[in-house]
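Example (one chain per record):
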Amino acid sequence: MGSNKHIFSLIFLSLILLLFSGGEASGQHMNFRPTKLFVFGDSYVDTGNHGRRLSFSWKDPYGITFPGKPAGRFSDGRVLTDFIAKYWGVKSPVPYRLKRLMPQHLKNGMNFAYGGTGVFDTWIPAPNMTTQIDLFQQLIKDKLYTATDLNYSVALVSVAGNDYSHYISNNGSTEGFPSFISSVVNQMRSNLKRIHELGVKKVAVGGLQPLGCLPRNTASSTFQRCNDTSNTLVAFHNSLLSQAVTKLNQEGKDHSTFILLNLYDSFMSVLNHPSTHNIQNQFQPCCIGVSSEYSCGNVDDNSVKKYSVCDDPKSAFFWDLVHPTQAGWHAVYNKLQTSNALQQILY
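Predicted structure:
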């Protein structure tokens, strides 16, 4: 009888150990469930950091799909941040500019992204990526977020397209482009490492989208085809970024700390097979100026609209000359899901 009790005790103890080890005795690992999201970058992830008077993202017809009025997003509705936050089970975080107006939402993390900004300074007088991280670091120093908070957090980074637009607008040479791309990626690598060193558990960075397929670059072909030269430069950027992410993971203890989101392939998959995603117009933007001197959201001195909006934004991939519609972002997000990159954050 005594030996039976001993056996039952051992079995019971084994079960307890198995439960509290999260199943590791069978080779499984506990899932990582983030509670906070911190966002850095540009207009692809900005959810309202620019002032209402300074940005067209606060003007009609932006936001007509969601939330039904302009709300600071560079789209007719939701952007990449919103879809990815939902997938990770986190609420889309409050924009840094609105942190005092919406203190109840600080528990979800914070969005430091500003449309038009880059890794380095651009033509937009707003915080570049390094300065955005400075703002984040200051909040940590102010004890707005604890080490425990950060240990259950994820960072989303989307940046660099504006760096290259700025380089071109400043008459940067074709010969100097590869060197400039290298400097952008090197700085990105330092910034990604810094975000993690501040305590953020996982860092997801978006590869560059096919810039040659943006309507501002396809307009010359009446929105019929991508600019291959631009996309070749994007491919070089993404190759260097992939190498940088691989090296960062090799240097760390956890080889899945940094995750690369392949926006290029996700964009191209949708653009090459639009009907699969119920997209009818893959290159023609939904909202466009009545002539080349105007753009989406422009009005004249008499408040007369100088733009037109398509009948159904859900049928278009692009909202304006640069940004996807909510439907476009949803299609890209669906492709990202199939790549398993988003899932890697949760392990």
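Caption: The first strand starts at residue 36 and ends at 41.
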